[in-house]
Amino acid sequence: LSPGAKMGCFTFIKVMMILFNLAIFLSGGTLLGVGIWVKVDGQSFVNIFGTLSSSILQVVNVSYVLIVIGSILLVIGFLGCYGAQKESKCLLMMFFSVVLIIFIAEVAVAVVALVYTSLAESLLTAVVTPILKEKYGVDKIFTHIWNATMTEVHCCGLNNYTDFNDSVWYETHGTFPAPCCDMLQPCNITAFPPLAHPDLCGCLLQGCFKQILEEIRTNAGVAGGVAAGIAALEIAAMAVAMYLYCRLDEK
């Protein structure tokens, strides 16, 4: 290519890099704002948008997830947009490094989730179960989200009903949460059947983790397509950042 064509190509890619990362920056700001909104006034958010059912996000604090993702997108968008605008090799390399770290982390999480499902379940159990015991029935938003999850997914607790043993809810009410049981008959810890007799007492014994995992497997094609699309965007972003970085040496 002639020097003019090369310069035109460089300028085009630079502008696209700026626009793309500006969109990421604005998206990150939006998610961060929504996350703060959910944290400060979660009930109004749930009332307006409803509950995110059948999603793994329902077993964690949604506000923290949004804040973390929004903050990461803000950093990535700023580094990419400002680095391309100012033609800063330092910022472009930082952008490349951050995206690469995120890409490697996503691949690692995917491998653990697909190959080591039992390990993922153990890690999730260690984190979520104590929170479930302490916050269910105490935190209104957390309780509302879990109730919607257990009702729509037809499950009880993360692993099974025993997640509510010694919980604040059971110590206060002496029963399992209503979504776990058939309200036509009582269901308490003394009358609760062993796992070998799921037809007694009218209670759900299966945990939400396995139910959600089954739904994810059912929609594996869609999930895989979304994951592949995100990975492709990340690879393209790294390639563009490295192209601009190398072209700056020639300039």
TrEMBL record:
Keywords: Glycoprotein, Lysosome, Membrane, Transmembrane, Transmembrane helix. The chain crosses the membrane at residues 12-38, 58-79, 91-116, 222-246. Coiled coil: none annotated. GO terms for cellular component: lysosomal membrane; plasma membrane. The keyword Membrane applies. It is found in: Lysosome membrane; Membrane. InterPro entries: Tetraspanin/Peripherin, Tetraspanin_animals, Tetraspanin_CS, Tetraspanin_EC2_sf. It is a multi-pass membrane protein. Its main location: membrane. The keyword Glycoprotein applies. Structural component of specialized membrane microdomains known as tetraspanin-enriched microdomains (TERMs), which act as platforms for receptor clustering and signaling. Participates thereby in diverse biological functions such as cell signal transduction, adhesion, migration and protein trafficking. Regulates neuronal differentiation in response to NGF by facilitating NGF-mediated activation of NTRK1/TRKA receptor tyrosine kinase and subsequent downstream signaling pathways. Plays a role in the inhibition of TNFalpha-induced apoptosis. Belongs to the tetraspanin (TM4SF) family. Interacts with SLC19A2. Interacts with NTRK1/TRKA. This is Tetraspanin. The gene is Tspan1.
